[in-house]
Amino acid sequence: MPHFGSTDIAKIDLAALKAFDAWRTEQNGKPFSQSGINNHNAALNRVLDEAELHGWITKSLRPTLLNKGLKSESRGSFTNAEYTKIYTALRTWHEKTSSTKAQATREVLRNYVLFLANTGVRHGTEALGLRWKNIEWHEQDANRYLVINVDGKTRKRAAVARDRVESYLDRQRKLNPAIRSESFDALLAARSDEHVFTTRLGKVATIFNLNRSFNALLDELGLKVGADGKTRTLYSWRHYYATQDLKRGISTHALSKQMGNSTAMLDKHYSKYSPLLNAELHSGRQVRRNAKQAAQDQGQSVAELAFNMLRGGSLDEAALMAAIGVGRDGYVVTEEIAMLALAAKRDEFIGGETLLRILNG
Q1: In the Cβ-directed half-sphere of 49, how many Cα atoms lie within 13 Å?
Q2: Which range, of 26-30, 138-142, 219-223, 274-278, averages the lowest pLDDT?
Q3: What are the backbone dihedrals phi and psi of residue 198, each rounded to the nearest 5 degrees, phi first?
């Protein structure tokens, strides 16, 4: 680490660490966050591990790394109405400046914002480091999905983009003068090493320029600070993405795989929102509506489809009962429901308690 330079590893003691803490605070202009200090401590621990392995220091003399940084707070987000207002404004944002470089940045910003809001990829090095060879089609059950292979903050991961992202990236493709592919699919097949977010001037968009342009847009739209008093930035689109997935009933476990976070972090920041975001899901309305529509599409009764979905693993016992209406006014135990429930119990797909609730209403 630059601060320690050629310092003898054995001389890095508590006093040296306190001096380092004061130095980084001065360089940063403010106290570091706990997550930032965790990154520094991880790097220092790797150095100390190596030193201990080679016998340059002993375990008893190894300094303990502390973290008294500021607790991080969840960043501001956007409402769906604000999202619409922003992407609408971005369509003509590049026309409101006479600077050629600023115009080029704003053209990329339009695609960049839509990409962030619909993938959950981190703003900055994670998104701007993407090259076209990192994007591919994944085929599954006669469908194909756009996959972004991200070199993430903690590990590499594959993130599945929303279907609409294809059009945003196709528009971005046309900005890069170095790309000669005739189509989006041809570009992905060529596994180009070109950076994705390149301006029409042939330069990769920078964090500084994108931040400056986006902040200027938010100021013009009066959206820099949300109703909760939190300042919004390009990183807020990651929070927006997470909120949208939670509204759709995605579990924090599945979301953590997509976003490259721990479930503990997601629970910490979003658990207070989950019940309200998923009001329709928790009430059972969404499950019943989806089950009824699927049953109609497949020519089955709701009960038959629900029990088939249970056997296939796509419904648990609670969702099964919500789908067939257990506990709802007007619920009637038909012969069909009774037979399906008994068969499910016989085959050990439901427990005795669930069987009794279905049969007794």
Answers
A1: 6
A2: 274-278
A3: -105, 140
95 is written with which tokens?
A: 């026309």
Residues 304-356: tens digit of each pLDDT: 888 888 887 777 888 888 888 888 888 889 999 999 999 999 888 898 889 99
Beta-carbon contacts of 258 under 8 Å, excluding residues fewer than 6 positions away, are 120, 157, 159, 160, 245
CA 287 – CA 315 distance, rounded (Å): 10
CB contact at 8 A, 239 and 77: yes
- Say how far apart CA 326 and CA 318 lie, in whole Å: 10
In sequence order, the β-bridge partners of residue 137 are 146
Tokens of 304: 């038959």
| Strand spans (E) along 119-224 | 135-140, 143-151, 156-160
pTM attached to this predicted model = 0.61
What 3-state DSSP class applies to 232?
coil
Residue keyed to tokens 């997601």 = 266
The DSSP symbol for 229 reads: S
In contact, 123 and 236? CB cutoff 8 Å: no
pLDDT at site 147 = 94
| CA–CA distance, 266 with 272 (Å, rounded to integer) | 10
Cα 296–300–305 angle (5° rounding)? 100
How high is the pLDDT of residue 286? 55
Q: Work out whether the CA dihedral 266, 269, 274, 275 comes out positive or negative.
A: positive
